[in-house]
Design goal:
Distance between the termini: 48 Å
Oligomer: single chain
Shape: globular
Largest sheet: 7 strands, mixed
CATH class of the largest domain: Alpha Beta
Length: 777
């Protein structure tokens, strides 16, 4: 069978989203012919190219002139000058766009380094407002090294023009965008399918890839009795409109030869209870959660058999007023079974055929695939993806300045109890670790093939044991890979463990603090405390690992003082050097969250959800609650302060001064974080003073050199010296062989045991290497 996997736009510029890679691996393991298309990057290149900008300016010149005239008449000189600048420089933008893209894709099309000098300094190169602001605010003289930043600003400038005069819904990244579908009917969403970017540019992408007039197209199965299965991944709200447009185009072009199914994060969270029959114009089914079980069930049914379209068999369904007797219409004629499919809901114009979430055999198979599958990026050309730089902050820059291969160490979250999280859904609650050895081997091979040596783990929270195992495998292979991902800030991340992970390739971590106060952490059932959070951050920073924190404000029980106290704690974390970057999110109550589930059980009487009745709602996960808007006033000040703190500015400023309204004074101790750091340092030093277990000891430092009974070595950029008794000179060779990549490590462990057994006092010397190259897990 042929399987087509499609990622609609727009998700991320710098890499491919991983759902397609896992589905590719899954269907190939079942023996099917698979092709994965990332249409997100194809749309990007369709617009940001010489032909694309030529078309864009031709389509928009008249409108831009009218808007400019209106702006001048109303006295808006800034808008007038910006629009006229775009139009006057239109040919320059067209001439330079391929070079701009080439700079951001590391010169994969032609050498660009020499032309970068001209891009930076030539007065004839195009300039937009963001580019000019960047150059004007440089704290150094502009050089060719600024080319990537300036090229990133160029993309943003063009995107601003598109939004202003062509398509107000356009954005370079729709990663976390909300289209407030919780208050939108499906008919309103359908109107968005006529957006200019979709009709003028994305349609061309679909025609380029799936041209139905080119004879026997790869999308159509050669078997006349079997449909091609098309899987459209919809990870976020911002990709839903493009997914609908994709489904409608394919249905129009290929008709009943395809069976189109949509799945992914947006489908799982927002459309679990969706019975919108109009979806039949776009999709044949919605797949929930991981999808493996539902597709196995689908493949074993007759729904993909074109011969079944001649039959008209009744099946169990939701009764509708239009079809009270459940008689199938012509669109439902392919349905030949009288059973519900596992986590797969089918749609026809007259009926919605419900699914079942219970099938122990399929659940078991799904868990087995989850543990064994490794993502397959065969169909992805990573050289097409731009590595953009929109901030000098090192952690912020790491998100996008690199084409990371995405994978996960475990499905779900090993804690899965945070009150604000969708803890009743599979992607959080169904914790299933993967097999690390085959995952590492597969990723290493693909990194070598693709010439991309960075891994972004997309786990809800990286399991510490699996992370350690992955790092050890990487060490044994010469540390070929670099990786980063989301963790829980817990005390398990000691200095030893952080040193080990750092040596093994861990570049940075992101983690949720959410409410940076002790009582707040308890109220949201975070499962950790402030001292543990500080301890983990201290260990990571001492080990040279970048740290990002997620923050949330506007909780149902949170008052103004709680918000200010959380902000003050965050300020102290920055002032202590424990964080590199952060992001504030506003709390959203969801139907699948732990707090909502507890509220349904009679808990949290202070939470008062507001149900909107008879509003024609399409997606139903997001909920309103009484008092949710009272915290909105904090958003601007929180973000302004954060932007300064992430660049080392304003760290001593009273947190209340970031707002244009009066706020309570924080009542947490001014040395709260300092005291927590002192607790960490005491425990770290106590741990370093413990006897060393040779089985768990690893040498991570440089080669130990002996000079006059003194050992000299480098660790993390610092040169250390330690006097040793002359009879213990062999200790240097033993320690060196404890390196994780050493072929003689087992022998060195045995030798160290012998040395300690013969002379227990040697432990005193060995302890002096702790935190200076010797790590004990």
């Amino acid at each position: 069978m042929k399987v087509i996997i499609i990622q609609p736009p727009l998700v991320q510029l710098n890499t491919a989203y991983p759902s397609g890679a896992y589905l590719s691996s899954f269907f190939k393991k079942l023996g099917h012919e698979v092709k994965w298309y990332d249409l997100s990057i194809k749309l990007f290149h369709k617009i940001f190219s010489k032909d694309g900008l030529t078309k864009l300016f031709n389509l928009t010149q008249n409108k831009a002139l009218k808007l400019a005239q209106t702006a001048r008449t109303s006295g808006d000189d800034n808008t007038f000058s910006n629009l006229m600048s775009y139009l006057s420089q239109s040919q320059a933008w067209i001439n330079w766009i391929d070079l701009i893209i080439n700079i951001l894709t590391d010169g994969t099309n032609y050498s660009s380094r020499e032309l970068c000098h001209r891009f930076i300094f030539s007065p004839d190169a195009p300039r937009g407002m963001r580019m000019n602001n960047y150059l004007e605010n440089l704290n150094h003289e502009a050089s060719v090294d600024d080319a990537r930043f300036l090229a990133t600003m160029a993309l943003a400038d063009i995107a601003d023009y598109i939004t202003a005069v062509f398509d107000k819904e356009f954005a370079l990244i729709r990663y976390g965008e909300s289209i407030t579908v919780s208050e939108t009917s499906f008919s309103q969403i359908e109107k968005g399918l006529s957006s200019p970017v979709l009709t003028e540019f994305y349609k061309e992408v679909l025609e380029d890839v799936f041209n139905p007039t080119s004879g026997l197209h790869p999308v159509v199965s050669e078997s006349t009795n079997q449909k091609t299965l098309v899987c459209i991944t919809v990870p976020f709200a911002g990709t839903f409109s493009a997914a609908l447009y994709t489904g409608k185009y394919l249905k129009s072009a290929f008709g009943d030869s395809l069976f189109i199914c949509a799945g992914g994060g947006f489908i799982n969270t927002e459309l679990r209870d969706c019975n919108e029959r109009s979806l039949a114009n776009y999709f044949d089914a919605l797949s929930y959660d991981r999808g493996y079980g539902s597709y196995i069930d689908l493949l074993s049914s007759s729904f993909l058999n074109t011969a079944a379209s001649q039959k008209t068999t009744e099946c169990s369904s939701i009764k509708t007023s239009e079809n009270p007797e459940n008689k199938p219409d012509s669109a439902a004629s392919a349905i030949t079974n009288d059973r519900k499919l596992y986590k797969l809901k089918l749609f026809t114009l007259n009926q919605t055929y419900e699914h079942t979430d219970v099938n122990p055999d399929l659940q078991k198979l799904e868990d087995e695939y989850t543990a064994s599958l490794t993502p397959d990026f065969t169909d992805i050309d990573f050289s097409e993806y731009p590595r953009v730089c929109d901030d000098i902050n090192p952690m912020q820059r790491m998100w996008s300045d690199g084409t990371w291969i995405k994978a996960y160490l475990a499905h779900g979250c090993y804690w899965h109890r945070c009150a604000f999280c969708d803890t009743t859904l599979d992607y959080v609650k169904a914790y299933k670790p993967t097999k690390i050895q085959p995952l590492y081997e597969s990723l290493k091979t693909q990194c070598q093939e693709k010439n991309v040596y960075g891994i972004h783990f997309v786990d809800e929270a990286l399991p510490p044991k699996a992370l350690t195992e992955f790092a050890l495998l990487n060490m044994s292979e010469g540390n070929q890979l670099s990786f980063w991902g989301n963790v829980r800030f817990e005390k398990v991340y000691s200095r030893d463990m952080a040193d080990f992970l750092s040596y093994g390739g861990l570049l940075g971590v992101s983690g949720g603090i959410e409410i940076a106060t002790g009582t707040g952490l308890n109220e949201i059932n975070k499962g950790t405390d402030l001292n543990s959070i500080v301890s983990a951050c201290c260990a990571f920073k001492e080990a040279g690992i970048l740290v990002h924190a997620y923050m949330i404000y506007g909780y149902w029980q949170q008052g103004d003082l709680d918000t200010i106290n959380s902000m003050e704690t965050l300020r102290q974390l920055y002032a202590a050097g424990l964080l590199d970057s952060s992001f504030w999110h506003k709390f959203v109550l969801t139907r699948h969250s732990g707090i909502y589930s507890e509220w349904q059980q009679g808990l949290h009487p202070e939470l008062k959800p507001v149900e909107i009745k008879n509003a024609g709602i399409f997606a139903k996960n997001g909920l309103h609650f009484e008092g949710e808007n009272k915290s909105e006033k904090f958003g601007r000040g929180l973000n302004i302060a954060l932007q300064h703190w992430m660049h080392g500015e304003g760290l001593n400023k009273n947190v209340g001064k970031w707002f244009d309204f009066k706020t309570p004074q924080p009542n947490i101790p001014s040395d709260l974080i300092e005291k927590a750091i002192a607790i960490y340092e005491k425990k770290r030093d106590e741990n370093f003073a413990q006897p060393v277990n040779p089985d768990k000891a690893f040498w991570l430092g440089g080669k130990l050199l002996t000079m006059n009974n003194t050992l000299i070595w480098n660790y993390k950029g610092e040169l250390f010296e330690e006097r040793i008794p002359s009879e213990q000179k062999t200790i240097s060779e033993i320690l060196w062989q404890l390196n994780p990549s050493s072929e003689n490590r087992k022998k060195a462990v045995s030798q160290l045991k012998d040395v300690i057994q013969k002379n227990p006092q040697i432990q005193k010397l060995i302890k002096k290497f702790r935190g200076r190259g010797l790590c004990v897990l």
